[in-house]
Design goal:
One of its GO terms (cellular component) is CHRAC. With about 130 residues, this protein is mainly alpha-helical. The protein is built from seven helices and no strands.
Length: about 130
């Protein structure tokens, strides 16, 4: 079995671009995984590579990449937001916004949260302000 694994790892290097050692580490980080079959590792690496290739190609074709002849982060985040197939990536590839805009959003969320919690008190305070 060791010879087969050694032979496989030699050909793997040509068939897969992603580093198998890193993929093994990621797979082992799951508590349900105790050992990883060499074939499963190779197939996971190849599937991941093909998925990334598909995501990149789709984003390039449907984004502004063709105009600029480049794939941008914006193209990827737009794909994650707009395409149902890739929507599970929306948290990983969020739209870029300015830090100042983000801080304003957080501030607004905090204020809205306070208004909901203290709804009755808020109305009383408004009445006092008018008087």
């Amino acid at each position: 079995a060791e010879m087969a694994a050694a032979r496989l790892s030699g050909s793997e290097n040509r068939l897969v671009s992603l580093p198998l050692s890193r993929i093994r580490v990621i797979m082992k980080s799951s508590p349900e995984v105790s050992s990883i079959n060499q074939d499963a590792l190779f197939l996971t690496a190849k599937a991941t590579e093909l998925f990334v290739q598909y995501l990149a190609t789709y984003s390039y074709k449907h984004g502004r990449g063709k105009e600029k002849n480049a794939l941008t982060y914006t193209d990827l985040s737009h794909t994650a937001e707009e395409c149902e197939t890739f929507q599970f990536l929306a948290d990983i590839l969020p739209k870029k916004i300015l830090a100042s805009k983000y801080l304003k959003m957080l501030e607004k969320e905090k204020r809205d949260g306070e208004v909901r919690e203290d709804n009755d008190e808020g109305e009383e305070e408004e009445d006092e302000d008018k008087a």
